[in-house]
């Protein structure tokens, strides 16, 4: 009997400890879940505040406010905030004086190339199809070499080249600038972008023609022309290697067909 009572008491004690432990774990889970929800709500609230501040600064007519907006944008994007409001503000600043114009008595008052340049560079941190399309539009439409150079640089870093659209836009922008205002800094960014995008380009003739123009244009400084010449050689060698592989494949296929014909007696 005494042994039975001891066993019964031990079992009751064990069950009590089990239920208390389970309740503590359940309370702890609820606390963690509540904490995560609070953190998420707080994060969304701060993101909304950032978006409101950035939108207000970007919409301002003041040049310095737009510079501050760019600083806020960089911080927001680095923190992972790529909301629609953030992207819209970035688009607006990238097209400041180009796609979004403010005029007083017919005079353009918001032509801020430096704002566009910084915004274009910042777009590389948001590597999306939308960013690519915006940068392509700016590279084609802008007349400031430093803005075009920034757009080309970001296009290379993003690396999206659907149907060679990006490469063709870069080639067009550089060809126009080469006629009107040849700039070595732009040509250098064009060559760097070509190096990145070459592997994703189906028709390399566009790149080869553009690089060849740069390599023989003495408006550009010697290091730029030398880089163009090296890239041209690289493109030519890769093209010849590809042709050799295709030729070897054809030869192997032909040999296989001949062997097959001999076996069948054809």
Question: Would you write up a description of this structure?
Answer:
- Helix content is 77%, strand content 2%.
- The chain is mainly α and 266 residues long.
- A two-stranded antiparallel sheet has the order 1-2.
- Strand 1 (103-104) and strand 2 (107-108) form a beta hairpin.
Strand order of the largest sheet: 1-2
Helix content: over 70%
What's the mean pLDDT score? Answer: 82
From the alpha carbons, calculate the radius of gyration and give it in angstroms: 31 Å
**Unreliable parts:** 244-248
Outline the biggest β-sheet: 2 strands, antiparallel
Structural class determined from secondary elements: mainly alpha
SSE string, helices as H and strands as E = HHHEEHHHHHHH
Which band does the percent of strand residues land in? under 5%
Number of alpha- plus pi-helical segments: 10
CA-based shape: globular
Number of strands: 2
Roughly how many Å apart are the termini?
100 Å
Task: Describe the protein's topology.
Elements: H1 2-59, H2 63-78, H3 84-94, E1 103-104, E2 107-108, H4 113-122, H5 129-141, H6 145-158, H7 165-180, H8 184-197, H9 205-215, H10 222-264
Antiparallel strand pairs: 1-2
Which keywords apply here?
266 residues, 77% helix, mainly alpha, 2 strands
Q: Could you provide a short overview of the structure?
A:
By secondary structure, the protein is mainly α.
């Amino acid at each position: 009997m005494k042994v039975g009572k001891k066993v019964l008491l031990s079992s009751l004690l064990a069950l009590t400890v089990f239920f208390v432990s389970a309740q503590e774990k359940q309370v702890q889970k609820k606390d963690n879940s509540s904490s995560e929800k609070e953190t998420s709500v707080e994060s969304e609230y701060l993101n909304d505040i950032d978006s409101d501040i950035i939108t207000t600064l970007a919409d301002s007519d003041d040049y310095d406010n737009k510079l501050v907006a760019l600083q806020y944008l960089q911080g927001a994007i680095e923190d992972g905030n790529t909301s629609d409001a953030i992207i819209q503000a970035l688009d607006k600043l990238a097209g400041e004086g180009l796609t979004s114009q403010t005029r007083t008595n017919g005079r353009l008052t918001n032509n801020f190339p430096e704002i566009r340049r910084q915004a274009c560079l910042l777009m590389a941190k948001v590597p999306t199809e939308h960013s690519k399309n915006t940068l392509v539009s700016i590279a084609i439409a802008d007349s400031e070499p430093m803005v075009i150079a920034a757009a080309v640089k970001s296009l290379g870093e993003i690396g999206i080249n659907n149907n060679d659209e990006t490469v063709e836009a870069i080639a067009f922008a550089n060809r126009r600038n080469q006629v009107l205002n040849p700039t070595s800094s732009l040509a250098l960014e064009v060559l760097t972008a070509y190096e990145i995008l070459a592997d994703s380009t189906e028709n390399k003739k566009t790149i080869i023609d553009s690089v060849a123009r740069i390599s023989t244009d003495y408006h550009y400084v010697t290091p730029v022309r030398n880089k163009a010449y090296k890239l041209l050689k690289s493109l030519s060698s890769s093209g010849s290697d590809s042709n050799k592989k295709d030729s070897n494949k054809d030869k192997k296929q032909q040999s296989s067909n001949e062997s097959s014909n001999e076996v069948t007696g054809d």
